[in-house]
## 1
Amino acid sequence: KMDDDDDDIPQLSSHSLAALQEFYLEQQQREGIKTSQGFNQYSIGSIEENWQLSQFWYSDETASCLAKEAVLAAGKGGKIACVSAPSVYQKLKEQDGEDFSVCILEYDRRFSVYGEEFIFYDYNQPLNLPENLLPHSFDIVVADPPYLSEECLEKTAETIKYLTKGKVLLCTGAIMEEQAAKHLGVKICKFIPKHSRNLANDFRCYVNYASGLD
């Protein structure tokens, strides 16, 4: 009988269905906000995290603090490169009109909405960079390697060393302290970065210059 077959189809409880509908409504509302006038495309969260790419955005306070530090370290008219650190890039772009320039090196092509400042970047090919990205042309490089592995850090470090004139601001796990010192000569800071969603791993900042993060 057909009725018996219907019993095999899994049914959502009314509570689950309501929760699912609420989720979709929130998604639609968020998308509506994104497309409405006055939306700041540089706001953190304007592009959703993709956990499959190991993306975790900083909290607004952390991104602001790191952006402020990058501007101070770069100096007047300075050039800043954000490597796999889109939250910092977005916060820097919110400071429209400030006397610095910035670009974002990122694997996620959704960030290509930022135009010429976006540079596609795959840490597995650390020096596969555009010809116009000249060596040692950035006053500071802010980097957040996507994975907590020495291989990822070592390859990202190649990119950082190619780009920077000297200053490095690295964000990665506390467990990477030894490797960070080995590959980039950076030391851990007192400042503890936070993410918009809590991470299980203890996260820290590292620098190779006298910073305002201590």
## 2
Amino acid sequence: GSSWNKCDFESNPCKVLPEFNLQPGWIRRNGRSGMGPPYSDHNGNESAYFLSLSSEMQSSSAALRTSVFLPTDEEHLCQIRFHYWVGQMGRTLMVGLQKLSEDTVTNIWQVSGELRNQWNVNTITINSTEKFEVIFLGMVETQRQGESVAIDDITFSEGC
């Protein structure tokens, strides 16, 4: 709907992902960056921007946190739709839910790299009785060139 809040990464700031520039593992880039696949965003545009894991990652995982969302209710569930790319070997993208009263992150969705180098789309629905954050976690088992995890066009419904 028109009330969805969209992060397409074309313009730098994104209200819902306030700190993505400060996360050392995620970078904003396009398909012409010379960093390997993906060579375009999910629409096939080589010059359009998306987020991907940096090949210079210091650790084996990099988290991307949303701002804090208010509790959901029956009429307004929080739906998050996003496009994702996971290179073949040893790459995982996980989406987690962190309620503010808890230290642990609950894994609500994940995919590992058996996908053959293509963009896919997914929608997750979140039901939470308390304030929460959503975390996109990119993980690499081995540092291999040319196999990435990328995210594009994250949209948040008005229930978020």
## 3
Amino acid sequence: MLVLLLLLGTSLVGAFPHKAPRKSCGLSKYRFLLPSELKAMREMKEKFEETMLLSNRKCNTRIFHRKWNTAELSVPDRVLLVEAELELVMEALERPAAPGLAEWRRRPLSFLAQAREDLRGCVGVSPHSPSLPGLAGTLATQAPAHQPSGKLRHWLHKLDTAKRRDTDGCLEASAILHLFQVLSDLKCAALREECA
């Protein structure tokens, strides 16, 4: 009788499909960034600004300029926004750096890579999914419960256009010069409804 019950229990478990556990969305640690992390970001930004002043690079670094505030977005839109921003920043920082800048990037890159990974747990984007231009579409197909707002879709399109049009050097400048805006957006996403 015991053997029959065990067999029946095993077959019933296989009869009902179960979802694979979804990676948790743990952004609370980004509500308040550690002073040491902020210091590493600030030092990298300052070193980059010094080298940029010495070069004759001419860039339009207005990619991150928006006519709206992050707090105006829904909580899911905020997460999608920061994920897209981090994709751009990581692509820029993972490229070969000018001599003397590689060392300054190491700690910020580690922090930003972790934040990007944590965000992927919230939006359902796999590490192998394409970045923009397919990001908005990928997010919509992988997370059908939430469609990005028109405001966010427009901004994602603008980001995609800049990625195709601007040089690597100008994308790097935009990413580094607006790094603290990205961190502010990350904090807003972590604060959820409390971000105002």
